[in-house]
Inverse folding.
């Protein structure tokens, strides 16, 4: 199977997720699918996709029947066909979906994050399905090297091809977490400084308005006194 693009993987992951979490509105309309792709929570990385980008991303999965367009209603809807096409059990489909939506994770994280899609009895059962996916030809998952300072190894999906070293660099390099925290703190400080400047400008404007109002009132009192 040809590798998926990151956007195609996001679309497929969202369809799998929403089938389990919002069955009443599944299959998904294009609008619901776009919203699911652009969620701010439970997504890594966060994306900002337009409808045209999602529609374009649907073309290739539809040609492979990984995604099926459902007709018969006013609104076109889409559903995934991942388990049947890839000949996977629902447990494996759930794990791949969470990996597509959230990026590399440990088996423990996968068990927690996939609970709404499938409730695994324990971490060993998660690892068993991940091992099966890794043993396929071609493999669909890979166990990454343990990052410096990490207790457990993470898993990644291979539906988008080999995991690029550059994509993992930010989280695998020593001190990366401290660096990320520093970047986040700097961004917060900048935002607070900008807010402070905005509030100072508003205060200055209000002070000028009050001064003008006082001048106007003083002038009116002078006229009345005369």
């Amino acid at each position: 199977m040809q590798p998926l693009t990151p956007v195609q993987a996001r679309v497929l992951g969202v369809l799998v997720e929403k089938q389990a979490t919002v069955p009443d509105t599944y299959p998904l309309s294009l609008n619901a699918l776009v919203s699911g792709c652009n969620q701010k929570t439970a997504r890594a990385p966060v994306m900002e996709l337009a409808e045209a980008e999602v529609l374009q991303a649907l073309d290739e999965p539809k040609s492979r029947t990984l995604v099926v367009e459902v007709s018969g209603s006013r609104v076109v809807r889409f559903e995934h066909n991942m388990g049947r096409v890839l000949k996977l059990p629902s447990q494996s489909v759930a794990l791949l979906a969470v990996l597509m939506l959230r990026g590399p994770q440990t088996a423990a994280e996968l068990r927690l994050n996939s609970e709404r899609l499938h409730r695994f009895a324990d971490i060993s059962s998660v690892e068993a399905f991940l091992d099966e996916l890794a043993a396929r030809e071609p493999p669909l998952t890979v166990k990454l090297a343990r990052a410096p300072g990490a207790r457990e190894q993470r898993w990644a999906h291979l539906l988008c091809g080999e995991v690029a070293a550059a994509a993992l660099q930010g989280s695998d390099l020593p001190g990366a977490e401290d660096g990320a925290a520093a970047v986040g703190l700097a961004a917060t400080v900048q935002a607070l400084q900008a807010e402070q400047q905005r509030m100072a400008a508003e205060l200055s404007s209000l002070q000028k308005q009050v001064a003008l109002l006082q001048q106007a009132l003083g002038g009116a009192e002078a006229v009345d006194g005369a």
Confidence is low (pLDDT under 50) at residues 169-191.
